[in-house]
Q: What sequence folds into this?
DNA sequence: TATTTTCCGTTGCAAAAGCAACACATTATG
DNA sequence: CATAATGTGTTGCTTTTGCAACGGAAAATA
């Protein structure tokens, strides 16, 4: 997520000022938080990687979002409307700052620096989230596994400004992110290699098409 | 989109105050606007229905969002990252208010009432958009056409607080919204009827499962 | 380091979805 | 009102995807 303000300083303000916060450390595979209706939690991933994951009634797992260092998440950015279970799972050891609001848009009484920065930047932060979500929708509306893969690769390529990049996911997780069957995705990956679209060495993909 | 403030009054302010605006009338199937990079247009649908539509390279059409009376749209809510063509098509005769920003978060010089209301409410408005997008992602991550249909129906049912409701789309458009083949969707609809999940009379669906 | 667990890569088979085509109904439009 | 355009409903066939299962590689863990 790209932001237009200094997120490092923001985090510093957050850590130093407002009292209603908690810092916690998680090990890999632990549940960082569960999204709960009518709560407004704001979380900052200080270190590590985590995924926002949903399990549906058929037992399918979907990776809704992938978070890395400095990512902001929590119900603030995800108004819950259904009763699906949404949880954030640590993909590596993680350090997370938690902050709970009654109303995210109201400043706290002490009028601390953190809140000032937050309320100034929250619209932009949420807008960044909107961008992410729209990208995700664009991926998901692609009709075939092949197009989803190519779409996702092209996105990573654009981000890294290179035709070669590491996947931020294991292949198993990538399938859950693209919402396709893993083995079908593997088959398609093989075909993409055979058809000369990509090269794949371990977790590194290189795009070969112009 | 549900908002927490008086959108009718907001629109009134919009119409009466700020000068940099335009009101236009469109007939069915006309293009209301095309989303353009690095522009921040804010549009309000005063009357009628419209869809945000994307055409991909394979010629597939996707309905990204569906707008009805009082909906807000425009690049403000959709940061463009890819070069797909995104356009808003009038589905009926429409009246639309346009407003163009250099920077959506800066107040205009005259400090008009519209801008005041807007900057106060923009975060909430964007948050509502986030909710919509998340719901859409939830639909799109469903693995089968059946689950997409049932998921969408259940959503409409929740909104209308009734197990019976009108589809806001033609069936052709519904397929484009759920990102599935129309004929396959029709087949699935028939099966849902045969299996006793739904009843369908014209555009009206009734859910029969508990 | 030995052992368990997770992930990768693959395959055969079944199920689902897409494609193309068509007849008919409904809705716009000259 | 006649005609054109669009939407609905259906079907046969093909392609894609999902499911289940398995062996081996890699990584985590005791």
A:
């Amino acid at each position: 997520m790209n932001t237009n303000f200094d997120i490092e300083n923001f985090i510093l303000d957050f850590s130093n000022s407002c009292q209603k916060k908690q810092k916690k450390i998680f090990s890999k595979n632990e549940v960082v938080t569960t999204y709960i209706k009518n709560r407004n939690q704001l979380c900052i991933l200080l270190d590590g990687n985590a995924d926002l994951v949903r399990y549906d009634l058929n037992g399918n797992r979907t990776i809704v979002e992938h978070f890395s260092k400095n990512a902001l998440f929590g119900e603030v950015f995800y108004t819950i409307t259904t009763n699906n279970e949404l949880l954030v799972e640590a993909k590596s050891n993680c350090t997370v700052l938690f902050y709970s609001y009654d109303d995210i848009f109201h400043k706290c009484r002490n009028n601390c620096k953190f809140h000032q920065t937050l309320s100034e930047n929250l619209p932009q932060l949420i807008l960044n989230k909107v961008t992410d979500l729209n990208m995700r929708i664009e991926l998901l509306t692609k009709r075939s596994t092949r197009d989803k893969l190519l779409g996702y690769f092209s996105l990573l390529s654009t981000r890294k400004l290179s035709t070669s990049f590491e996947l931020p996911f294991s292949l198993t997780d990538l399938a859950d992110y693209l919402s396709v069957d893993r083995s079908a995705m593997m088959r398609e990956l093989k075909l993409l290699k055979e058809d000369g679209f990509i090269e794949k060495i371990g977790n590194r993909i290189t795009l070969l098409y112009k």
User: Anything to note?
Assistant: Chain B touches chain A through 35 residues (CB under 8 Å). The first helix of chain B runs from residue 7 to 16. The first strand of chain B starts at residue 21 and ends at 26. Helices of chain B lie at 7-16, 113-140, 145-160, 171-178, 182-194.
